[in-house]
Amino acid sequence: MEFTFKPIGVIKTGYSEKEGTPIQGAFHPENKASIELHREYVKGLTDLEGFSHIILLYVFHKAGECRSLQKPFLDDVARGVFAIRSPKRPNPLGLTTVKLEQIVGGTLHVSGVDVLDGTPLLDIKPYIPDFDVKKDVKVGWMLNKNRGEGLSDDRFS
What we know:
By secondary structure, the chain is an all-beta fold. The chain has one domain (9-130): Elongation Factor Tu (Ef-tu), domain 3 (Beta Barrel). It is built from one helix and eight strands, in the order ββββββββα. The strands form two sheets. A six-stranded antiparallel beta barrel has the order 1-2-7-6-3-8. The chain has a two-stranded antiparallel ribbon with strand order 4-5. A hairpin with an 8-residue loop joins strand 4 and strand 5.
């Protein structure tokens, strides 16, 4: 079975190169972006302004070829692609939770972004703590990892 996805908009950021782009928006809450929704989806923003945070689903459009084992940020050991958040995936899909600053027409202004300029947006979902926050979690190999600067290097090139 195959699926075809059509972008609903584009994410505009100040990051044109993979190197130096934040690897997790949570590490960089000050990073601003705008999301330009395609006109036919603007009505879908109705009632979204009542949420402080939203989840963005997008395409890693410059990710490159997937590798089953990769060295993630914060570690020097190759890990399985499904145990890391590398953009080089079998299906190059990304997600991030951002703060919704405001909506002006069909443009969303957000902060805490970690994507390249021109990233195709596939979907928006409201962040709802009762659904999205889990308790009693394990974080695997990430336990006690220092996040460093939280910026991309040449591993994604």
